[in-house]
Design goal:
- Helices cover 70% and strands 2% of the residues.
- It is built from twelve helices and two strands; from the N terminus they run αααααααββααααα.
- A hairpin with a 2-residue loop joins strand 1 and strand 2.
Length: 257
């Protein structure tokens, strides 16, 4: 992971120097850059999700047709996936790669916002010589210390609240509705539990990470909005069987009549 973290730390420091020693702006620009870099990975994930969603009515019909015969149902489902060029694992690999990149960025923010002597020593080893003079980073923004959790009475829930709201909205946009009642129930639970979990993280982690979560969610919402408006970006619809055309001779005969 270090091969990703160290370059990200230096890019953060570089943006910090360019943007008037404002680390929040550095996080915002770096977050947008990371989301743009991972966009080619996001699109296949969205393609897989939307194709699976387009096939939901047909999958439900197969379940009703084959009832409890799991072998025939599995064969029919695999045939349907093959006919529509859908991979059940099409979104897994991009998601794993994105996860590694996001974890590396998370560690880069923690590393750049060094708040104790050990972290400062580690940061000095990671930083390029021309950026070493920027250390230590000015971690103050409004009333926040970006390197620590916000404990300001009456204000400490602002960032976690924004994390919860933006995470929920992004998940709603990224997860299309399903006709499967059990899957729909599970989706609703995940859409509630995941934002609350990230909100809990935001209460305990450095405020700079909350800024990252909020900006990343907002950029993700913009991406999903444009993917939804331009289906060719995310996916083509699942293939529908072509309508049968009557033979040419029959058409001619009917026209003569």
């Amino acid at each position: 992971m270090d091969f990703l973290v160290s370059p990200m730390v230096n890019i953060l420091l570089w943006f910090y120097s360019l943007l008037g020693s404002n680390f929040v702006l550095g996080i915002v620009v770096m977050t947008i850059l990371v989301r743009m870099i991972t966009l080619p990975l996001t699109l296949p994930q969205q393609r897989s999700t939307r194709k699976m969603q387009a096939l939901q009515p047909q999958l439900e019909a197969l379940k009703k047709k084959y009832g409890n015969d799991r072998n025939k149902l599995a064969e029919a489902q695999m045939k349907l996936y093959k006919e529509n060029n859908v991979s059940m694992f099409g979104g897994c690999l991009p998601l794993i790669v994105q996860l590694f990149i996001m974890i590396a960025f998370y560690e880069a923010i923690i590393g750049a916002l060094a708040v104790n002597p050990i972290q400062l020593l580690s940061l000095s080893h990671r930083a390029a010589p021309e950026l070493a003079s920027l250390i230590p980073i000015n971690s103050q923004f409004l009333w926040f210390d970006l390197g620590r959790p916000d404990a300001t009475p009456g204000l400490m829930f602002i960032l976690p609240g924004l994390v919860v709201i933006t995470t929920y909205l992004q998940q709603k946009m990224a997860t299309p509705p399903t006709v499967d009642s059990s899957a729909s129930s599970m989706t609703r639970q995940m859409n509630i539990m995941m934002p609350l979990m990230f909100g809990l993280f935001a209460l305990q982690f450095a405020s700079g990470l909350s800024i990252y979560f909020i900006v990343s969610n907002l950029v993700g919402m913009v991406q999903y909005y444009f993917i939804g408006r331009n289906p060719s970006m995310g996916t083509a619809s699942a293939k529908q069987p072509p309508a049968k055309q009557p033979p040419a001779k029959q058409v001619t005969a009917k026209a003569k009549k």
